[in-house]
Amino acid sequence: MKKVAISIILVGVLGFGGFGVYKNINAKAAAQSQTSQYTTSKASVQNIKKSISGSGSVQSSSTDVLKAASRDTIDSVLVSKNQVVTKGQELITFVNGSDPIVAPYDGVVSDISVSAGDNVNASQALITTFDNKNLYTKISVDETDLPDLKVGQKADIKVNAFPDVKFTGTVKDISQQGTYSNGVSNFDVTITFDNVNDIKVGMSTEATIVTASKDNALAVPVEAVRDIKGEKYVMIPKENASPTLQKVELGISNGRVVEITNGLVAGQAVELPQIKSSSNNSSKLKGMGNFQMMQGGGTRNNKTSGSQGSSQSK
């Protein structure tokens, strides 16, 4: 009988202790739970530009090292380093009648390797020139951007030395071979300047290539769109009721807003999901990510955000 009593007491103690542990675990889990919170935005008419950007530097389309045709002696060097020259201008002459070295194009002398009186051999480098009229910049783009790029596309170029001057360019070449690093492949894109003004070789640049554009497009922030089994939806808030799913069709996107080609009208409100993480009485709002389906659970709180309706397109 005593053994039975002891067993009953032991079971009771273990049961009470287990309940306490269970309660404690639940309390900790509750303290670390995530509560979904929502703001709203309105579908609005915007001009959307989809673009690809990158940084680089100004480079010359032609750089030439001019060499001696035969063994001879330098008679005179007629130019100096950094001098601007014109096509056909004599640069170096020789004592023994060799043809003079002339500028192959309008450009700049960047280096001189000889002086008057020097003896030179055939194929010896004498002077270096570069074309300062036909300039380009080269940017590196992610492999995922390649399908949107084409030779002939226009680009806006910012030359950092002239922050208030707008330069334009044209995509001349897209590399057929990429460079692989840290799990990503990048490809070089060459953009020629339409006008050079006072640009100098070596100046730093930032180029933006517009790959698609749409004026007067109905758009919403990209985070408003959910992907459910390959179909695109937005959540439509309802006053004093649960929101409803609305199927939509999409057009172009610039990464901040996306065009809605069917399913919404201008001024219609949509929900923008976020996750509110709370732990030890502290909270932090986290974005749900673009074009992802809202993960369930949590308490729904609707808040209207006035800034969400502003245009984010370029």
From TrEMBL:
Multidrug resistance protein MdtA-like C-terminal permuted SH3 domain residues: 216-270
Any Pfam family matching the protein: Beta-barrel_YknX
Region Disordered, residue ranges: 277-314
Protein keywords: Coiled coil
Compartments, record wording: Cell envelope
A single GO molecular function term of this UniProt record: transmembrane transporter activity
Biased amino acid composition, Low complexity: 277-294, 305-314
GO cellular component: cell envelope; membrane
InterPro entries (UniProt xref): Beta-barrel_YknX (IPR058636), MdtA-like_C (IPR058627), RND_pump_MFP (IPR006143), UPF0194_transport (IPR050465)
Main location: other
Domain YknX-like beta-barrel: from-to ranges: 140-207
Family per record: Belongs to the membrane fusion protein (MFP) (TC 8.A.1) family.
PANTHER family linked to this entry: EFFLUX SYSTEM COMPONENT YKNX-RELATED (PTHR32347)
Protein name: Efflux RND transporter periplasmic adaptor subunit
Lineage of the organism: Bacteria, Bacillati, Bacillota, Clostridia, Eubacteriales
